[in-house]
Amino acid sequence: MEHSSAAHHPPAQTAVVVSGPFDDLRSHHVRLLQEAARRGPVTVWLWSDNAIHRTLGHPPRFPLPERLYLLRALRFVTDVQCTDEPLQPDPSLLPPGPVLWVVHPFPEPHPEPPPRADLQTLTLAPTDLAGFPLPDPLPPDPGRKKVVVTGCYDWLHSGHVRFFEECSSLGNLYVIVGNDANVRALKGPGHPLQSQDERRYMVAAIRYVIETFISSGHGWLDADPEIRRLRPDIYAVNEDGDKGGKREYCAQLGLEYVVLKRTPAPGLPARSSTQLRGF
């Protein structure tokens, strides 16, 4: 008795391709990649610095290695390929099997998808990218310690991501994002630039983070209620965050207190939210 080959070989999973400069990564970029990832594993065709200059008429704000680092840190991205010809994509760079080419609603020029019989296109509208839907928490490794970090994380940048990456080497990482009212009280008018929901969303998109929360307290120890519920083993801060009685607080609760140096990822410049905001 003959059997069809389809009975032995399930249909190939659709690969998803998104092309763009992804310069100055913000929540709308992440929402695009999140929506794309709902359709299959996402490969980003990232425009080179020269391609951005030629196509958009200005150099990128962030160099290619930094843009590459940030994209690879997103849990919605499976692979990143760099391209020097964004408006004339090379069909040989497409993944094998069926491909979905996702067209974004941003003002940058839209490259035409390469011609291929098994390629389909999906055009997303701004309304498709509304809101900040949190991804599901990642499953923690039961054999590792529980690590908590706190902070504002306004205008998420490569320095934040590097901090999360280093903290995740200590154990399962949980991030508590400062609530809007407390950030404003600590840092003054104009802060935070982004809402607590948007800041939490951006942090939750990083693959080094298990789960995120918003603080419910006030002052430098505004995350006290959440820390007491989480019961972590380690409270990690960077050098700038080593203040506000956190060391004494950890001694009181019996938590290990770890202070990390603010060291950028290899080859990347140092970044700070103050520098990026300009105030």
Summarize the structure in words:
The chain has 279 residues and is an alpha/beta fold. It is 27% helix and 19% strand. It contains 9 helices and 10 strands. It has helices spanning 27-37, 49-56, 64-72, 158-168, 180-187, 196-204, 224-230, 246-253, 273-277, and strands at 15-20, 42-47, 79-83, 99-103, 119-123, 146-151, 172-177, 211-214, 234-238, 256-260. The strands form 2 sheets. The chain has a 5-stranded parallel beta sheet. Strands 8-7-6-9-10 form a 5-stranded parallel beta sheet, sandwiched between helices. Strand 9, helix 8 (246-253) and strand 10 (256-260) form a beta-alpha-beta unit.
Keywords:
279 residues; alpha/beta; 5-stranded parallel sheet; disordered N terminus
Radius of gyration: 21 Å
The helix-strand sequence is EHEHHEEEEHEHHEHEHEH
Poorly predicted ranges: 1-10
- The side-by-side strand order for the widest beta sheet comes to 3-2-1-4-5
Strand content: 15-25%
Number of strands: 10
State mean pLDDT (0 to 100 scale). Answer: 92
- Please state the structural category: alpha/beta
Percent of residues in helices: 25-40%
